[in-house]
Write a structure and sequence with these properties.
Oligomer: heterodimer
Strand order of the largest sheet of chain B: 2-3-4-1-5-6-8
Strand order of the largest sheet of chain A: 4-3-2-1-5-6
Number of strands of chain A: 6
Number of helices of chain B: 25
Strand content of chain A: 35-45%
Number of helices of chain A: 2
Radius of gyration of chain A: 12 Å
Distance between the termini of chain A: 6 Å
Largest sheet of chain B: 7 strands, mixed
Distance between the termini of chain B: 86 Å
Helix content of chain A: 10-25%
Shape of chain A: globular
Largest sheet of chain A: 6 strands, antiparallel
Helix content of chain B: 55-70%
Chain lengths: 82, 619
Amino acid sequence: MRLSELPRRTSATVDSVEDRSPNDAIARRLRELGFVAGEEVQVMASGPVGAEPLLVQVGFTRFALRRSEAARIVLRTNGKAT
Amino acid sequence: MSASAIPLRLALVGNPNSGKTALFNLLTGSRQKVANYTGVTVERKEGRLLAPSGRSYALLDLPGAYSLNPASLDEAITRDLCRGFYPGEPAPDVLVCVVDATNLRLHLRFVLEVRALGRPMVVALNMADAAERRGIRIDREALQHALGVPVVETVAVRHNGAKALVQTLEAIADKPHAPEHALAADADLHEETRRLLSLTVTMPTRTARIDDVLDRWLLHPVIGLVTLSLVMFLIFQAVYAWATPMMDAIEAATAWLGAVVGNAMPAGPLRSLVVDGIIAGLGGVIVFLPQILILFAFILALEESGYLPRAAFLLDKMMAGAGLSGRSFIPLLSSFACAIPGIMATRSIQDPRDRIATIMVAPLMTCSARLPVYALLIGAFIPKQQVAGLLNLQGLVLFALYLAGIVSALLVSFVMKKWRRDKGEHPLLLELPSYRLPHPRDLAIGLWERAMIFLKRVGGIILALTILLWFLLSFPAAPADATMPLIDYSFAGRIGHAMTAIFAPIGFNWQICIALIPGMAAREVAVASLATVYALSAANDDAAAQALAPIISDGWSLATALSLLVWFIYAPQCISTWATIKRETNSWKMMAISAGYLFALAYLASLVTYQLAVAMGAG
């Protein structure tokens, strides 16, 4: 499952962040912001139009991510990546 | 203790939202200098820190960065400066790494990146009071030991909040030394951050309760948008209405000063230069200050409180469709009052591409200076009649003019988005920081900076252009036996007559062409200028408009009037807006593109309107 598909207010654990292109700067920045394996994430809210962007809690911080950004983040379910 | 000849150079580095600038304000007070880094429009803030020992330090507030692996121009500057690679900027002697004590999971990783530079550094655990209130316990000594660099607590919003930091800086000032640690160069910084956290920090909850509650309401799809509309309405109302009395007072004071000086000087070109050129020009600069100050008071408060990123969150989807970002909204809204504060407000848009797009379309928002022109033309040409029994036709036309501006702005930004060569994805990736009460000192310093930037950088250009315009309007002087209005004999008059060749296809007569020239100083002046051209002696603008209405409704065709109305939707900006665009983008090219495309749009739209109207028999 990907972060963009995670139901609201459900905790999940990050497995990895995928590069969309070689040297994907957005994926790199997501990792720097704390989206790394083992980190707990939650979608707290979504924007009023088209449920975009997503309000994502990671670590002690909240970020607004567009769906295309959140879709780079792969989550673990039951301890395994899907 | 002897003060060294060259003051020690300190630099504040840290993540955005670490309270770095508030700490900078506390350390330096009003001893600050704001400029740009050479060649770019990134703000460079330097100040002087006067320690109790009498020693003084040069303190640089570097742009906020999430990483030294830069994703933006701001971050690249921070990285290069920290490493001492930035041209013309010596390397800082000590780096002060500012972290938010309530957000250590994110900020400590950056500390590790900075530490890897191997430069002398101090970590400032900022907002230590907020951490304490939330029950976050940080073992400062253990953290200092584990990091191998001095760690001090700071509270940027408290009077004595940086005492420990200054003491530590004084202690290491004489022999700054690089940090000692045993972390491998390729170590996983997230792993190390987690280790440090588990070693030194206990945290009852990951987030503050107040943030959870506020976000639940303020980001709610319905309640959030209603709240945002209310906030926007208040800002618009303030910029539009509250500033008017102050602007009227400034105009009255300028007129009074002009009269006093005019009476004291002998008639002649010198008096005309001082009164009509310099004093009127200065008045024309200062008159923008009330709107700029009111708008920025709101924007700074919203930014400091953490609400501005929330507003961007709510509006991002709508604005992104048109090639703008959520942060474009407030600058565009303020442009309805005046494009100048609006364009200055685009500084809160981090993405340079989104910022340029916003600056480009801001002049399409119908600014208040266009209202007198609209009012004159609508009053003279649009019949006062009811449409569908309840709507007033005149009001409907005015609404259509506003709407045409908005729709055009969306279209222009959409076309720009499609035409851009850069097809890269511009991420949102926006941090929504904890809510905070803005500190009056930070608001005051921020406002002071905005006012100075406007007066110093934009004011000079506006003044110079106003004097140039005065020259065109006043020379050569009319002969003694002048039979036509004086303006007819001036350079401006001749230019106006020459312009008819270009403007005849869109239905403008020579009187309109001449009025367009002084209208460049400020659009509402076009009305007074028309009165001058038609040789009316009117006491003030209102009287001029009243006297003008019958003359133009007899003299002009409906097609000409409609064409002029449409012209003013797009009309190339006033020179003050040009000056602001030049300064904010640091590029004559951007200014030329902006003026050029608006002229082309105005001409095309007026041409279509005029020719259609003539074809339909309104010529």
